User: Which sequence fits this backbone?
């Protein structure tokens, strides 16, 4: 089963994100935030509504972790595409490169707009995993890579849900809501790829 | 097989070190309730400013999903004869679909074409990001009148129209006095009137249990700290503020058993009628006794499963050896409403039931598969939790008014005795009528009932 993970073109996505604040809110999204999580003195666009790009702590944590996680996804996938001989792994890695690169551009723009310092390479945790993966080969690599993908997508799904509940920036929450179905789909696909590794072993004479 | 083992063993050895490195913890407020970052006056002003939009969004969502109109079913009344039972399927179909066409599709087809009616999806809290207990206006007004205690929130109102909730105040039936029928005197039991109403009917330990169930204790949204949603420094809430007269007033909350906040599904208050036959308690928690449940609700209904927040706002831990058993004894004598057409076995009495009700019972026991879990002989319970896997029918991860649509996982089987008194239905109250529940299970179980069978099933459930 192949599922389209990025339903809109990048241009359309930016157009959508850019107009989020201008449209009347609808119930198919993050809903209203909890003002108890808004720092005192936050400038408001309207009474009770934080002005655009006024981030709270959850927004910042989300941006930082999503940037790090998204970058790692692409780096790991590029490594997997080079290292693996398994068709399922290669296809999955290609999809991660394509779809996370798209998402990463949007996250990077939002992080830059928020004044966060740009990432300089992988964070230490992902770097450690990358280094371990680099030393593996064949089936050992495939298993370790897909296991890392399952964990990473579990973490990312929880992170997006965290932003939806605790963040306050409309743009970021809209992005989290839009990405979450894709991330959960990646997770389900990674589970299927893992199962596929053992099916292919069992089929060998 | 040997080849398989040769492959997997070295991998397993490597796995440990790879996965351990992925700690990446979420911040603590993904699990724990954060301290407010602004003064109460600021939060209250922002909440009040948001309120109209909050209510509008939820109203739009409800109207997109459901027909909220007031359409009662003839003269069918709830057990206290204070409110008519609402009729008809209220979940709206997606464009171009019919109930028959949907039932002929596979779950995969329904998911891939986006045809699952949105009213079958999890129902969000009126303000998902904040959550907390929300009481209907009838409860708020009556507690205000009797106790001068404020259950009104400044950030949200109750979101369902009054005609779609249980009758108020609900009747009370005691296992210890079946001959008396409803002993509520048409009043809402409160700390102000319980003794006068119940002395002579109850034993001393039951009266003491009742007193505790009616005594307000601090709660997450109703307390004395700056982190509250009542305008005044609140005395708190009581167990029977939601379980009015040991039934339900449709007050809602969020599950205390899930984090982060956006994933916490809505909880509709469950009736306490027939608790004496219920072996597991809580939609998700499967607590094994009413004593456990009574004790632990101070951690969950009152404080969202966050003992740290409770410690700051005023925790109340009823004494397990003395107070909890008395509260449990009181709850254990609350009976189901009378069902004159039912035999002691839980089956319909053919001399009293209509042909349609009897036909409905046959569907219930047979083609409809309802009785697989709702066993008539054991109060329409099986004392199990089941996973309906509704996620077979929709793409998970979409967000509706702040709630992420995720698999519900296993949920406790609820009794169907007196079910006409307990709208809305399902653990989160997503369905408004019994006809909705028939369409829901017709699809989820894939049983392909005819229109006639569906109608007989509703008639049968009204007799329970």
Assistant:
């Amino acid at each position: 089963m192949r599922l389209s993970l990025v339903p809109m073109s990048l241009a359309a996505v930016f157009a959508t994100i850019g107009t989020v604040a201008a449209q009347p809110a609808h119930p198919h999204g993050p809903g209203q935030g909890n003002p108890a999580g808004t720092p005192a003195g936050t400038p408001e666009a309207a009474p009770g509504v934080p002005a655009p790009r006024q981030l709270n702590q959850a927004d910042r944590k989300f941006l930082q972790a999503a940037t790090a996680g998204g970058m790692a996804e692409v780096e790991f996938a590029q490594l997997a595409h080079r290292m693996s001989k398994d068709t399922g792994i290669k296809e999955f890695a290609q999809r991660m490169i394509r779809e996370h690169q798209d998402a990463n551009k949007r996250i990077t723009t939002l992080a830059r707009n928020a004044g966060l310092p740009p990432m300089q390479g992988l964070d230490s945790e992902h770097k450690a995993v990358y280094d371990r993966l680099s030393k593996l080969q064949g089936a050992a690599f495939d298993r370790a890579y897909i296991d890392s993908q399952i964990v990473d997508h579990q973490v990312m799904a929880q992170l997006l849900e965290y932003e939806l509940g605790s963040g306050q920036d409309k743009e970021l929450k809209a992005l989290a809501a839009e990405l979450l179905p894709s991330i959960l789909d990646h997770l389900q696909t990674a589970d299927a790829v893992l199962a596929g590794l053992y099916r292919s072993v069992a089929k060998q004479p | 097989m040997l080849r398989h083992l040769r492959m997997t063993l070295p991998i397993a050895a490597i796995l440990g070190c790879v996965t351990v490195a992925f700690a990446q913890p979420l911040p603590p407020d993904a699990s724990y309730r954060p301290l407010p970052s602004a003064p109460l006056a600021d939060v209250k002003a922002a909440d009040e400013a948001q309120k109209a939009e909050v209510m509008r969004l939820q109203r739009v969502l409800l109207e997109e999903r459901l027909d909220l109109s007031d359409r009662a079913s003839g003269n069918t009344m709830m057990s206290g004869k204070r409110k008519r039972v609402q009729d008809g399927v209220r979940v709206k179909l997606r464009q171009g679909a019919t109930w028959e066409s949907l039932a002929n599709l596979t779950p995969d087809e329904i998911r891939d074409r986006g045809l699952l009616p949105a009213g079958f999806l999890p129902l969000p809290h009126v303000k998902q990001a904040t959550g907390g207990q929300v009481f209907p206006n009838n409860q708020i007004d009556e507690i205000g009148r009797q106790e001068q205690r404020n259950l009104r929130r400044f950030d949200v109102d109750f979101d369902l129209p009054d005609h779609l909730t249980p009758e108020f105040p609900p009747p009370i039936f005691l296992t210890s006095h079946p001959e008396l029928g409803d002993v509520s005197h048409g009043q809402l039991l409160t700390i102000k009137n319980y003794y006068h109403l119940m002395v002579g009917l109850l034993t001393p330990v039951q009266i003491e249990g009742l007193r505790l169930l009616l005594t307000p204790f601090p709660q997450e949204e109703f307390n004395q700290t700056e982190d509250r949603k009542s305008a005044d420094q609140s005395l708190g809430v009581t167990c029977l503020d939601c379980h009015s007269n040991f039934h339900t007033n449709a007050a809602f909350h969020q599950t205390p058993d899930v984090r982060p906040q956006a994933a916490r599904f809505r909880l509709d208050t469950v009736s306490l009628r027939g608790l004496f036959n219920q072996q597991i308690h809580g939609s998700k928690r499967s607590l094994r006794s009413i004593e456990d449940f009574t004790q632990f609700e101070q951690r969950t209904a009152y404080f969202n499963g966050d003992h740290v927040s409770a410690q700051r706002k005023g925790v109340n831990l009823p004494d397990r050896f003395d107070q909890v058993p008395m509260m449990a004894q009181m709850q254990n004598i609350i009976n189901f409403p009378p069902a004159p057409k039912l035999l002691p076995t839980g089956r319909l009495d053919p001399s009293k039931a209509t042909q349609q009700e009897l036909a409905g019972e046959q569907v219930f026991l047979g083609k409809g598969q309802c009785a697989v879990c709702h066993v008539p002989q054991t109060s329409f319970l099986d004392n199990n939790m089941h996973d309906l896997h509704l996620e077979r029918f929709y793409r998970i991860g979409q967000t509706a008014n702040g709630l992420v649509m995720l698999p519900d996982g296993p949920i406790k089987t609820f009794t169907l005795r007196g079910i006409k008194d307990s709208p809305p239905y399902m653990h989160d109250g997503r369905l408004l009528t019994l006809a909705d529940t028939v369409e829901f299970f017709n699809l989820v179980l894939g049983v392909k009932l005819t229109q006639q069978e569906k109608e007989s099933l509703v008639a049968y459930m009204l007799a329970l």
